[in-house]
Amino acid sequence: EGVLEAIALWGAEGYDAGLSTTPAMFMSTVMPQFEFDGAIMITASHNPGEWNGFKLCKANAVRGYHRGAKE
After folding, report:
1. Which end of the chain is more exposed for a tag (fewer CB within 10 A), N or C?
2. What is the tens place of the pLDDT at every residue in 10-66?
3. Nearest-CA neighbor of 17 among 45, 39, 2?
4. Which parts of 1-71 fold into alpha helices (H)?
5. What is the reported pLDDT for 11?
6. Residue predicted with more confidence, 5 or 68
7. Which residues have C-beta within 8 Å of that of residue 38, sequence separation ≥ 6?
8. What end-to-end distance do the CA atoms of the chain give, in Å?
9. Cα–chain-centroid distance for residue 70?
10. pLDDT classification of 68: cutoffs 50, 70, 90
């Protein structure tokens, strides 16, 4: 709810997709029936709380790479 409120304060429209997978979050930025400008996933897992966080994706993004990765 806090993320949606912040998005609204910025003058944008948010959509709560509920429980979703990471691939579904990405696909929401490329599939014609959605074409969202970006997506934010609030993550939680079986790991300790300090490993929880946010996953971000923007439309037309390209996959990043880890520092030190070979091209």
Report:
1. C
2. 998 888 988 888 888 888 888 888 878 888 888 877 778 788 888 888 887 666 655
3. 39
4. 2-9, 22-27
5. 92
6. 5
7. 29, 56, 57, 58, 59
8. 39
9. 26
10. low
Q: How far apart are CA 8 and CA 12, in angstroms?
A: 5
Instruction: Name the token pair of 67.
Output: 């520092």
Residue carrying the six token digits 């709810």: 1
E strands, 1-71, where?
38-43, 53-58
- d(CA 48, CA 67) in angstroms, rounded, equals 25
3 vs 46, higher pLDDT: 3
- CA nearest neighbour of 35 among 27, 24, 43: 27
Q: Tally Cβ neighbours within 10 Å of residue 28.
A: 19
Long-range pairs, 6-14, Cβ under 8 A, ≥24: 12/37
d(CA 6, CA 8): 5
